[in-house]
Amino acid sequence: AVILLGQASRRQKVSLERIAVNWWESQDADENGENPSPGPIVDGGPGLYTTTIGIDLLAKLDSRLQVSTSA
After folding, report:
1. What is the 3-state composition of the chain as percent helix, strand, coil, each rounded to the nearest 5?
2. Is residue 50 within 8 Å of residue 22, measured between CB atoms?
3. Phi/psi zone of residue 27: left (φ > 0), alpha (ψ -120 to 50 degrees), beta?
């Protein structure tokens, strides 16, 4: 199973992502101080990944969760 999580500072709940985009692009360095050029996260992988578990049911069972379709 794959669980895709989104981080958005203005959201009040944890977002369970229905779709993840295979793309890295950031103006900020990571915790190791690295800031690679924009490009795929997984070279040769698909452009999009879709979750493989029932995120709608999870969100119904836990009010702290919400489903996001905008990766």
Report:
1. 10, 25, 65
2. no
3. alpha
Phi, psi of 17 (to 5 degrees): -85, 130
9-65: per-residue pLDDT in tens?
788 888 888 888 899 888 888 889 988 889 999 999 999 988 888 999 999 999 999
Closest CA to 5 of 40, 60, 47, 53: 53
C-beta separation of 17 from 48 below 8 A: no
